[in-house]
Write a structure and sequence with these properties.
- By secondary structure, this protein is mostly helical.
- The protein has one domain.
- Helix content is 87%, strand content 0%.
- The longest helix is centred in the C-terminal third of the chain and has 42 residues.
- The N and C termini lie far apart (51 Å).
- GO terms for molecular function: protein phosphatase regulator activity.
- InterPro entries: ARM-like, ARM-type_fold, PP2A_B56.
- One of its GO terms (cellular component) is protein phosphatase type 2A complex.
Length: 68
């Protein structure tokens, strides 16, 4: 988890996370795991999207060069 730019917000977040962990550690771990999975999937989607745009750019450039 990235720290917040505001130190007070970051401190409060740490406190809340600690309380949540103390209250129900198993649920906390499950939520963390699900969050990590979602972040990984979002990263993969972004990488695929970037790759697709790069392929389209190459195709467009090739088409333009054919007509010169």
């Amino acid at each position: 988890m990235q720290p917040h730019w505001n130190s007070e917000v970051h401190k409060m977040t740490v406190i809340v996370r600690k309380k949540f962990l103390e209250k129900d550690g198993e649920l906390f771990e499950e939520c963390q795991r699900q969050y990590a999975e979602k972040q990984d999937k979002a990263l993969e989607v972004g990488e695929r999207r970037e790759s697709t745009w790069q392929k389209l750019a190459v195709l467009l450039l090739n088409k333009l060069l054919e007509h010169i």
